[in-house]
Amino acid sequence: MPNWTKDQALAINKRGGKIIVSAAAGSGKTAVLSERVIEFILNGGEVNRLLIVTFTKAAAGEMKERIKKKIEEAYLKDTKNEHLRKQINLVDTALITTMDAFYADVVKQNFEKLKIDRDFDVLSNEEEKILKEKVVNDVIEDAFDNVGDFKLLVDFFDGIEKIKTNIFKVSNHLDTVPFKDEYIKKALSNYTIENNYYKDALLKNIKLKMKSYSYMYASLYEDLYNESSDFDKVLEVLNKERNYINEFLCLSDFDSLASLIRRISFDTLRTPKGHKDDAALVKYKVIRDEFKEEIKKKLNELMFVSDSLYDEEKEKMKAILTTLFEVVSKFDKKMMEEKKRISSFSFSDIAHFVIKLLIKDGKKTPLAKSMSLKFDEILIDEYQDTNNLQNVIFNAISKDNSNLFIVGDVKQSIYRFRSACPEIFNNDKNSASKDGFPNLITLSKNFRSRKEVLDFCNFIFENTMSKSFGEVNYGTDKQTESTAAGAGQHHGHHPPYRQGRHRREPRQAGWWRAGGAGADQGQGSGKQYRVRRPSGGAGAGQGHPQRGGAGDRHEVRAVPGEPQQAEGEAHPAGEVRREAEGINIAGIRRLYAGTTGEQIFCPWHVAHRQRGGASDRCGERPQRRPAAHSADTGGPGN
Predict the structure, then answer these.
(1) Could you give the C-alpha distances from 185 to 191, 316, 325, in angstroms and in order?
(2) Considering only CA atoms, which of 309, 233, 247 is closest in space to residue 607?
(3) 48 CB contacts (<8 Å, ≥6 apart)?
(4) CB of 447 within 8 A of CB of 635?
(5) 612 or 14: which carries more pLDDT confidence?
(6) pLDDT computed for residue 482 by the predictor
(7) Most CB atoms closer than 10 Å: which of 62, 416, 429, 488?
(8) pLDDT of res. 128
(9) So what's the pLDDT on residue 461?
């Protein structure tokens, strides 16, 4: 009998409602999943009353073999148990399968309702590509005569080939949406005059990025101030740039944004004699160069934008999108006619057939209700890589979600390019509790990798992944544990003022040693710094130390409405602080990354298309899959 951890045992035995298992890499989720099935069977359950869904055929085959082997082992200990003997015979036909295979079975069992042939084929990618090329040419030729504003698309996209490309892109995206018509209506509603969805999204992204710079510049000021009095002129330059950053944080419209970008100027930064290789100054130069590039290259295209221009372009974009959606709808309709003619469909077509069978007018169909009675439990692996369409299907065949058991790890989501929505799993986790239902169980102990590897991975991802970048606050309960020393702990990497969640406590004059907690006892890196007591009137040595009194040249303007930090108070917005902590900020999400999964075109790109700015769809940020995260000394692994 394996020595299960407390959380593993809970995931195996907990029943009575929806269960969400957040399982880190190497935490034994496959073993837990199969053991849960075994416990269900040993307690009188029937394996054919389960639906077990995995992501690949190989994983499904492995799961089926593992379950069958465990049932056989249990039967050998009790050969008179007729229930176990029956389950051994049922395993091979049990629904332990992939999503696509399950959907295909549902469609084949209900082919008459869909008015398609039962023995349909699945189109390969190449076959579908050839069919799309043929159909799109026919649709575009017809659009010249039968789509009134088609010339808008021709003018906007500068040619037929770009129109084709965008038809394919929009059609592919709609294939991942459960209810296409509703989605199109909602997308177009974002372009009405009274709706400022995209303007608000852009300003929010700018403020998020500038908040990162705000924390970095505050840290830089502290470093340079305490390093040497030779940096007075450098601090003047730094504070001027801090004031620009604070102005960005106060923006509420495009007029003020454009005005601010136009008047930003960067003073020459002169290196004090003898400080060329000073670490604090080198760090400032690196971050300053990133900030300058942000202003001069990324934000520069917004220099002449205005609220009135935005409204004008939004109206034009609505007309263009309305026409594009009309053409895409014709394309999809023609594609389906051709597919029915040759009795071959794509995987997304089959999934949409299932939606049609299960949902009508926003409610469950009789078929969905009967299917929900068929399964005592629905177990789904790799749920972080499901999309909205798949999520709707599983909710429809469940008993109002009460018999769902989902397993996933947002940190391991790798199929964003296939329209996976890890935020679905995140939302489930956020709505769950540790006690009631939906119930959240976290498997955080890793049994696969050495502690040294896990400590390194935890350190890297704790300092790079946040809610705004990677969709996970890695440093909280999402981070896996280490029973040996505590994964992700700092071991003398930062000077004392960065301990305790970046507490801003005024230092005493004298010498201090760089290091982590316990630096006063001589631990840490060993490098020593001279700290000068700030002099001057009110405000000296409080919060961010200032040289001189009120009205001093180093004054930094506060942000109206922004909470002011008290002495010794922990930093707000921890996830932003973690982004800002290191020297290299290149990993922070690019300003123009897509703000939602629903975005198709960005009007601020359109507004600057004539000036050479970007006009294509906002890029999706890549998903990274971190290695294993923590170490333990025992317990079952995968």
Answers:
(1) 11, 17, 10
(2) 309
(3) 90, 93, 94, 95
(4) yes
(5) 14
(6) 53
(7) 488
(8) 95
(9) 86
Residue 131: DSSP 8-state: H
Q: What percent of the chain has pLDDT over 70?
A: 74
Q: What is the pLDDT of residue 264?
A: 95
pLDDT digits (tens, 9 = 90+) for 187-237: 999 998 889 999 999 999 999 999 999 999 999 999 999 888 889 999 999
In whole angstroms, what is the distance from residue 23 CA to residue 26 CA?
8
Give the pair of three-digit tokens for residue 177. 């949406």
CA-CA distances (angstroms) from residue 262 to 240, 257, 259, 304, 364? 15, 9, 5, 8, 55
- List beta partners, residue 441: 21
Return mean pLDDT, the chain.
Answer: 78
Q: Are 424 and 382 in contact (CB under 8 A)?
A: no
β-strand partners of 54: 98
Q: Which residues contact 296 (CB under 8 A, 6 or more apart)?
A: none
CB distance 577 to 599 below 8 Å: no
Rounded Cα gap, residues 621 and 120, in angstroms? 37
Looking at residue 504, its pLDDT comes to: 35
Here the tokens at position 587 are: 């990993």
At residue 202's C-alpha, the angle toward residues 201 and 203, to 5°, is: 95
Q: Which residues contact 408 (CB under 8 A, 6 or more apart)?
A: 20, 21, 22, 23, 381, 382, 383, 384, 385, 422, 425
Reduced to 3 states (helix: H, G, I; strand: E, B; else coil), residue 174 is helix
Residues 6+ apart with CB under 8 A from 33: 52, 63, 379, 381, 407
Write the CB contacts of 201 (distance below 8 Å, at least 6 apart in sequence). 595, 596, 599
* Tokens read off for 195: 């709706």
Q: Are 541 and 576 in contact (CB under 8 A)?
A: no
Cα–Cα nearest to 487, from 330, 308, 626: 626
> 371 pLDDT exceeds 60?
yes
Q: Could you tell me the two tokens for 84? A: 């176990």
C-alpha atoms less than 13 angstroms from C-alpha of 600 in its C-beta half-sphere: 24
Tokens representing residue 503 in the block: 């507490």
Structure tokens at 6: 């407390």
Q: How far is Cα 409 from Cα 137, in angstroms, rounded to an integer?
A: 42
Looking at residue 507, what is its pLDDT?
36
The total number of residues written for the chain in this structure: 638
CA distance linking residue 504 with residue 506, whole number of Å = 7
What is the Cα–Cα distance from 238 to 548, expressed in whole angstroms? 17
Q: How far apart are CA 343 and CA 527, in angstroms?
A: 73
Q: Specify the 3-state DSSP secondary structure of 129.
A: helix
E strands of 432-585, at which residues? 439-443, 510-513, 528-531
- Assess contact for 504 and 565: CB atoms under 8 A: yes
**Residue 42 near residue 81, CB atoms below 8 Å:** no
Sign of the dihedral through C-alpha 112, 113, 117, 120: negative
Give the pLDDT confidence score for residue 478 in this predicted structure.
Answer: 47
- Rounded Cα distance between 336 and 114, Å, is 12
**Measured in Å, how far apart are the chain's first and last C-alpha atoms?**
15
What global pTM score does this model have? 0.69
Query: Which helix (H) or strand (E) is 13 found in, with range?
Result: helix 6-13
Q: Could you give the CA distance from residue 296 to residue 291 in angstroms, rounded to a whole number? A: 9
Q: Where does the pLDDT of residue 476 fall: very low under 50, low under 70, confident under 90, or very high at 90 and above?
A: low
- Position 579 pLDDT exceeds 70: no
Please determine, for residue 497, whether its predicted confidence score (pLDDT) is greater than 60.
no
Cα(97)–Cα(60) distance, integer angstroms: 5
**CA-wise closest residue to 524 among 543, 508, 507, 511:** 511
